[in-house]
Amino acid sequence: MDSTPPFKLAADDLVTASWLYMRQGLARPRVLVSWLVLWACFLAFIIFVNGGPATRPEQWLVLLGISLLPFAAVIAVTVILTPITARRIFRQQRSLQGEMALAWSDTGLHVRSEYGDFEMPWPHFVRWAEDGRSFLLFESDRLYRVVPKRVLTPDQQQSLRQFLGRIGA
Questions:
Q1: What letter does residue 112 receive in the DSSP assignment?
Q2: How many CB atoms lie within 10 A of CB 64?
Q3: Neighbouring C-beta atoms of residue 165, cutoff 10 Å
Q4: Who's near 168: CB < 8 A, 6+ residues apart?
Q5: Where does residue 79 rank: exposed (0-12), middle (13-18), buried (19+ CB within 10 A)?
Q6: What is the pLDDT of residues 89-146, one digit of tens each?
Q7: Could you tell me which of 3, 43, 16 has the C-alpha nearest to residue 134?
């Protein structure tokens, strides 16, 4: 059984996890299709308000630009608010600030914290994601556990990755 030394999550761990959660969520096919359909509907509305399709190429560029403005605004707001929100949640949620240790084996992920010990069997996770700084283990579409790579050796990262590869298989 591999295990980490005791560690504490940092606010930056939550910021990194929030970025990964956002990128991973946006890359899901149903989310991409939803955004594309929403954009197409908005473009159709703009064309309707314009009195019909553009007749000159520069008109099309203006219409396309206008149709992308709300999406650019959403992205800008998200880029600004994601780290602010993650840091606020970290300050508010005391359970994220305590010391913990993780271990994993064939049976699941074992968590030891000031709140006690428990084990999450691998089948209880629905998927996982990884970037250069952390692993996210999803218990549902919205609930995930953060495992910062800074507390793992390269061998432990590979070991955890092998167990995570079984999720959803």
A1: E
A2: 13
A3: 10
A4: 126, 127
A5: exposed
A6: 999 999 999 999 999 999 999 999 999 999 999 999 999 999 999 999 999 988 999 9
A7: 16
User: pLDDT category, 169, cuts 50, 70, 90?
Assistant: very low
Which of 110, 86, 88 is closest to 100 using CA atoms? 110
Rounded (10°) CA dihedral 32, 38, 44, 49: -140
- Look at the block and give the residue holding tokens 């092998």: 162
Give the separation between CA 53 and CA 44, rounded to whole angstroms: 9
Report all structural domains of the chain as residue ranges with CATH numbers, in order of start.
2-9+97-164 (2.30.29.30), 13-92 (no CATH)
Angstrom distance (rounded) from CA 80 to CA 143: 22
Instruction: Tell me the whole-structure pTM to 2 decimals.
Output: 0.81
State CA 71 to chain mean position distance.
Answer: 19
To the nearest 10°, report the CA torsion of 137, 143, 149, 154: 0
